[in-house]
Amino acid sequence: MSESESFFGDPDPIFADKELLRVSHLPEGDRIIGRDQELQKLANAIKDAQRGGTPNNVLIYGKTGTGKSLCSKYITRDLTQAAADNGIKVGVAYVDCFQESTETQTVRTIAQALNDPTQTDITVPHTGVSTSDYYRRLWDILDARLDVGLVILDEIDKLEDDNVLMQLSRAAEAGKVTESTLGVIGISNKIRYKDSLNERVKSSLSERDFVFPPYDANQLREILRSRADAFREGVLDEDVIPKVAALAAKEHGDARKAIDILRYAGEIADEHGDDTVRVEYVDEAHDREEQARLSELIAKQPEHSKYLLQALSLQAQEAPDDDSAIPTKDIYSMYELVCERNGVDPLKMRRVRDLLSELAFLSLIEQERKGRGKGKGAHTVNQLVDEPEVVVEACKSA
Ligand SMILES: Nc1ncnc2c1ncn2[C@@H]1O[C@H](COP(=O)(O)OP(=O)(O)O)[C@@H](O)[C@H]1O
Ligand SMILES: [Mg+2]
Fold first, then answer.
1. How far apart are the CA of 77 and the centre of ligand 2, in A?
2. 66 annotated to bind ligand
3. Are residues 135 and 114 in contact, defined by beta-carbon separation less than 8 angstroms?
4. SMART domains from the xrefs (predicted)?
């Protein structure tokens, strides 16, 4: 390599602005495709906040990649601006409840997001404060500097207890805040989330609820097209976007999946030293996306679920091709070995059964009840949904 050459190579031959293909990228309203109705309903539900009134609490359901997080962030930002034009101060706190799953973490995150210490003289330290003190500071912050606080609780089903929902959804009514008011937007991928709540929380939290339907191939195509300027002009083969959209539509219309596959296709072209993103790269991009999604999903599982997946993978690899459905009892013995290798104590069988059902719920494995023959009762067999090699790989990187 000569001295003048950079290790980072020439300007990117494929991407003009890769940020447009990041999940966290928040497109402008006119670039949000096929969600006019949902945005309008959300706007109606929270519109009282525009004049300083109390917004309705909202629950939003829908599968992953249906635009729930995007629309919630967009509509609250839009509301904040509209309210500012009326001289009303709205603050928005976004909480990823997977990251902040305890009551204390949630309240702290909200208080920190809504605070501005130069205006309130209130601090929200990371440690050394009790949960009830975090609440007190949050109410003080709201009253001191805002007319309305809006809290987005994303992946709300990951919260460890209901108390924070009770506190937030009834703050105004319970007189915790007097100079301001508060609204909650809860988001969940689990359509039955509401069933798990106690009646009081349920009725105050879900004054309105909405379901976001999956996108069809046309909408996905449009979503991808509206981000085509992530690529340099002319590098994207014309069949790439339709193919990516068709693949993602087949698997429950997930916009995030579609955008990820498109980005991987560009990266693969780059790795081949090609200056064109060809339709041939899309299948490999799809595989890469699956692997990444699986790693991400597995990474979120408790430690022992990962050991169970490893145990099941090991057994599936040993099993003859035609029979990779493994009885729970057999998984358990392999699981004990995996635990030993990792220097941890195995959980009891009962708990293992629970973890396996949770893995089945997430479609990481499939379960089936089988009869053992006359008078011998039934037992459960378990099977990986993905290839064992892929799962082992994902457990490693998780
Ligand atoms: N209607 C849409 N128009 C444009 N981009 C979208 C649309 N819906 C989703 N996206 C994009 O797809 C990705 C996944 O959307 P997200 O809101 O995170 O889905 P969810 O929260 O339902 O899982 C994000 O990058 C988002 O910007
Ligand atoms: Mg989301």
1. 16
2. yes
3. no
4. AAA (SM00382), Cdc6_C (SM01074)
